[in-house]
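Researcher: I'd like a candidate sequence for this fold, 364 residues long. If you have to choose between options at a position, lean toward the conservative one.
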């Protein structure tokens, strides 16, 4: 087998796109040469990773080894900081309130130690992942001068914040342990969609293992592991605040809007891309422009008749130019995923809904 098709992953589910990104990235970082990612050309499109001469079992061994290293007690996943007398995962981007300057300084010092260790070890995928996740933010305040410490986190990090829960400790560690405990055949079976085992979520009907990337329900943990690491391919741009009256958040690649009007977007393409090329297309301004078609500057859907005074996010000529640019790079379309909120206002659960196609060109 020189191709791995993620059999249970449909293009209208954001988890499928992130799983493709993460699988390719983990294999590439694992020293596998010639990794390419694409979407199949069949009507029932599925994400595909191809590597000359690589068997499915060999690929599964790389994924398993990656999870076991992450699950090791010395891994950054298991570094903790004490907040309100409870341990929290140090490298989570959204955490309980720090409360005082001494705690902030301690956490920053420990985070810098982790980053220095990863840099010295050449763990570039881990560094890319942490950079994409973001960090607790101490430099943005609201009108009441309160620190807005969630504002430097990726919008893809959708772990609900109820009862002190956080992304690394309550999600990433559990999925790492589940995949690390599997043998290679079990990992491969999950990737291929032959089985769905959600050990981290207890195989329950309302499992949140997908962490907002798909609807609640069992998600195979090997697929989920790849999808969570797929965030590493969607970089984050930090922002500083000049006017406290204006809400400022970091800019997440693949995300549009704010507040109650938010979207994720992802391209579909049929040419085999290296992970580096994938990152380039994902972060390209043209991809963002094409994805904004039909939205106003507040990321709300424009009425069909164009009525209203709110200007579009991009002009028709800008969208047309972006589509031509994407077509030249074998992008067949873009899916846009509306983000909905569920649960309480105190700890809302954000979730990417089914994707809506934004066509770049007709398939041939």
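Model: Candidate sequence:
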């Amino acid at each position: 087998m020189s191709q791995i098709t993620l059999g249970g992953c449909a293009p209208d589910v954001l988890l499928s796109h992130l799983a493709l990104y993460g699988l390719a990235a983990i294999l590439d970082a694992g020293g596998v040469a010639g990794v390419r990612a694409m979407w199949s050309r069949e009507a029932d499109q599925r994400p595909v990773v191809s590597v000359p001469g690589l068997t499915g079992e060999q690929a599964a061994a790389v994924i398993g080894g990656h999870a076991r290293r992450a699950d090791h007690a010395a891994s950054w996943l298991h570094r903790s900081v004490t907040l309100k007398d409870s341990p929290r995962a140090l490298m989570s981007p959204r955490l309980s309130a720090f409360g005082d300057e001494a705690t902030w300084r301690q956490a920053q010092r420990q985070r810098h130690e982790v980053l220095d260790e990863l840099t010295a070890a050449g763990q570039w995928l881990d560094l890319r992942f942490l950079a994409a996740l973001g960090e607790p933010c101490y430099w943005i305040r609201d009108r009441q001068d309160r620190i807005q410490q969630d504002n430097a986190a990726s919008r893809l990090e959708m772990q609900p914040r109820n009862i002190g829960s956080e992304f690394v400790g309550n999600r990433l560690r559990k999925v790492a342990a589940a995949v690390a405990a599997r043998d290679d055949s079990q990992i491969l079976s999950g990737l291929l969609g032959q089985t769905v085992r959600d050990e981290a979520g207890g195989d329950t009907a309302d499992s949140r293992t997908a962490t907002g990337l798909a609807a609640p329900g069992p998600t195979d943990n090997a697929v989920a592991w790849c999808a969570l690491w797929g965030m590493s391919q969607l970089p984050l741009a930090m922002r500083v605040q000049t006017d406290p009256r204006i809400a400022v958040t970091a800019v997440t690649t693949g995300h549009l809007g704010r507040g109650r009007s938010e979207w994720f977007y992802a391209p579909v393409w049929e040419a085999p891309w290296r992970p580096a090329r994938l990152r380039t297309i994902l972060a390209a301004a043209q991809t963002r422009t094409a994805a904004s078609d039909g939205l106003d500057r507040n990321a709300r859907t424009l009425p069909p008749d164009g009525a209203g005074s709110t200007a579009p996010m991009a002009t028709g000529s800008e969208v047309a130019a972006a589509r031509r640019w994407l077509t030249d790079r074998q992008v067949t379309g873009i899916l846009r995923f509306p983000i909905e909120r569920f649960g309480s206002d105190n700890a809302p659960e954000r979730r990417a809904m089914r994707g809506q196609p934004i066509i770049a060109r007709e398939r041939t």
